[in-house]
Design a protein that fits this description.
The chain is mostly beta strands. About 10% of the residues lie in helices and about 30% in strands. The protein is elongated and about 80 Å long.
Amino acid sequence: MPAKIVETRPRAFKRVSVDPITLDIIENAMLNARYEMDAVLFRTAMSPGIREQHDEFPMIANVDGKMVVGQFGSFIYGFKEAYHGTIEEGDMFLTTDPYSCKGAVSHINDWLLLRPIFKDGRLVAYAAMFGHMTDVGGKVPGSLPTDARQIFEEGIRIPPIRLFKYHPETRRLICFDHGLPRRDDKNQLLPDPPKPTGADSALGETRHRNDFGFCDSMAYDGQRYIYAGTVAGALCRIDTHTDKVEKIAHVMATGRFPALAIAEDGTIYGAGGMKGHTQVMRWRPGSDCIDSFFNLRDPSINDGPARIHELAVDREHTLYLAENDNHQRSSYLWSTRLP
């Protein structure tokens, strides 16, 4: 079912004739708007692909979704066909899925942001921007595996979702209704897994002294849910069909949850922790408990993983754990099979 456009003004605006001079002024104003969109993104983007290579493409489309200024053509029609929800004033949408916009973005490194533009309660235009993110996960750095057999090997694939909603009248910005859950939120789906002895929250020793529900990692199951780990160590999920956000449990006792991966059978793996308390978790959706593992060590060198920043899982459920900025020694790549 295609997207439904919600307009509070029942009658369309009356069309008027435009003389050549006015038309020329409007045309150049639209071109200037496009150049300003370029400049803003070049100056603010964190991705080197956008900031240095200028691999990004803004677009302004008319009420029918046809491109007015931009390049590569319009993807509005494909987006509206793929997004099964409402399009309302104040919405901002995100997708990285080429199949959701008829291939307007060619791979999942291209992140597409789209905003409908309303005037007095009536849809009048669309503004959009997509750019190349240098790395979005997947099996290789840069997220461009030449031997991939399915799109999920390239990295996180996000279907069309409402990223946030802005209410002009109240000047309120709402992200997924209430953002990601906090560590101390009581409403959660599962009990917290066991934690290492003496493992207390270490957020106070970082720049994240307060828990604002900041996202630390994300993984999409390819069907419905985006799973997210927060800086405070909570595991959450976002329902892409309804935009509902749920806290599953508080998993990383000390905080930081920078690594999430989903196996082919849907099993979710995560890793994180601080102050020497490295944790690895496993959850099979549908089960009523989360498995937690710590004190992982390689007896041959009498050492174990620390400061885990990324993980990957293969078909046999072997985990590969990558360290980041280990100040005690060189950072290692570890592999393990959980019992």
